[in-house]
Every structure is written in structure tokens, then in C-alpha cells.
Amino acid sequence: MTRTVFCQYLQRDAEGLDFQMYPGELGQRIYQHISKEAWAAWQHKQTMLINEKRLNMMDADARAYLSKEMEAFLFEGKDIEIDGYTPPETK
Length: 91
Known about the structure:
about 50% helix; mainly alpha; 2 strands; Fe_traffick_prot_YggX; iron; two-stranded antiparallel sheet; Fe_traffick_prot_YggX_sf; Probable Fe(2+)-trafficking protein; iron ion binding
């Protein structure tokens, strides 16, 4: 059985995550208010950020930076700007 949540990122009902993907209070908030679709969009952006900024995930500052960007992306509607990335043109 699938869970449905009102996704704060998509601003509509959508399939919820199967389990809490991130630890702590923020992880609980994501589980309750973010859809699988929105989480996948964040994971794509996160990968781009890690690669572009050459983040070392063993570094606490890098993890804190990603956490802040994740919260802004998922809950505040802030798009992540990737230096040097130009999105493909839609036809």
C-alpha cells in the first residue's frame, strides 16, 4: 500500500516516501511532507552540487551546507544554482 502525502515541494498530493530517508527532526519533516518525486528531484540536485563544488561528504561543513540547501529546496521553493550548469533547452 502506498502512502500519500501533501508534498510541500510539489504543492499537491503525491506518493510519499517508504521510510525516513534522512535522520533527525528534518528527516521526520521530509518523511511527512515530501513526496518520492520531490525527493528524487533533490537527489539529482544534490549530486550536481556535490560534483560541482567538489564536496567531501566526510566534512561536517559540507554536510551542513547540503542540509541547508536541501531544506531550502524542498520546503522554501528555492532552486539550487549550479555554477557553470546550463539546463538543456526545452523544445
